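Sequence in, structure out. Go.
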Amino acid sequence: MEIYSLNVEKHVLSGLIKHPNLFADVEKFVSEKDFYNDVHRTIFCVIRSILLNGSKLDKVLLAEKIKNLGVSFKDEIDIYSYVDNLGFSQIQPKAVMEASKELLKLRIRREIQETCQQVKNFVEKSGSKDIDEIIGECDSLYNSKINGYSIQDEPVNIFENLTDIIEERGNEPEEDVGFYTPNEEFNKLYGGLRPGNLYAVVARPGQGKTTWINNLLMKTGELNDIPVLMLDTEMATLDIQFRTASSITDVPMWYLETGNWRKNQELTSKVRSNLKNVKSTLQCHHAFVGNKNIDQICSLVRRWHLSAVGRGNPCIISYDYVKLTGEKVGQNWAEHQAIGDKIDKLKKLAEEVGAPLITAMQLNRSGENHNRRGADVTDDSSAISLSDRLQWFCSFVAIFRRKTVDEMASDGEDFGTHKLIPLKTRFQGKNAVGHHDLVRRPMEDGSFRWMNNFLNFSVENFNVEERGSLHSIIEAQSERFNPEERNPEDGEELL
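Output:
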């Protein structure tokens, strides 16, 4: 396999000397590291320096500048004659661009070869390391190189084809650009789950975030007929299977785990009839990753995606939850840096496989509600661990928690037991009011309070059901207490 070509390198250099106006286009593909020959590398660097300084490029000036560098080359050459010979080429502009692209390909071949050697060396020196660690490290070496080969696009005038884009979308309208979820209000406000984006759900322990995420993942996968992958740092696959069976059958998990469902005819009927209706075509995969670092996790996802999904095909992934799982911290690598790096890699992974990736993270204790009273709850980003890093990389961030006693009373029992409070959303659905979707809510004393819109959920026995938004609550209360429609005999007081 050819990994370099001196002739191709000469074609590029000759083309730049002959057609210096092509430099801006050539530089999109070529840098000094693309030249295998040290003489050619130096010539390119000097050409670039001359042109970027706005000077006129000629063979004499080029040779003089190279000579003044005092660089000694492996091969003894007369730089004046060498440059002069390059300048006699009759290469055409089109051939220059083709040679530039070929030079890039040759460099990629060399780097792949070098990467393979690095992988080989690592495996040979791995000794007694765990096989998952070896695979994860090798995968990380390979993908870090592969992901760096995309050519960066130049800045684009957004108005150049804006009308065409909008008209084209109008020719084939869609309900949503993301995957349709089982939560109608979520779809209307945020446009479903969009591929290549990181979604974060933040909560204190025991608030039901795992149940919410798993329910969202499974039902979205079923609605869109796409595979899902659940990465779990706490629960084994068997635990998830019992939870899922409990949700499907509406039988408490204790009866399923102990097998006591067989002692009760009613439970036996519920289990068998409901499980019988489960679609055999559903693809919901689970993996315990509590002992794997982020590189090993990314490697696992890539292998699963290649074998179970296929390149270019859609899927959904969850990771529950962001914490240290084998990542090493020390004097030069603090815990918050390791967590930040993990969030960054999860975002890149979502982009790489083209999937929505839903993850979870812990609230600080400032977000705790010990007494389940309103005054004890903090519903803003200050309560989120590593808030800045999370919000940098995530397209959607929300707090998920149980409602307080006061909230249950003011919202009404029809609007569930839990709430999802969005803190950041990059996207909008068709019913979004504004970027923050602020809502003017009437209070019991007759005053009004501006609040971020939130979604209501009922969570029971691992089942999740959406119960509308804050808009829904206000609308219901308005209908209930509208003085013009109220029957005087009802005796109800206005809020």
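Check: Confidence is low (pLDDT under 50) at residues 490-495. The two ends are 79 Å apart (CA to CA).
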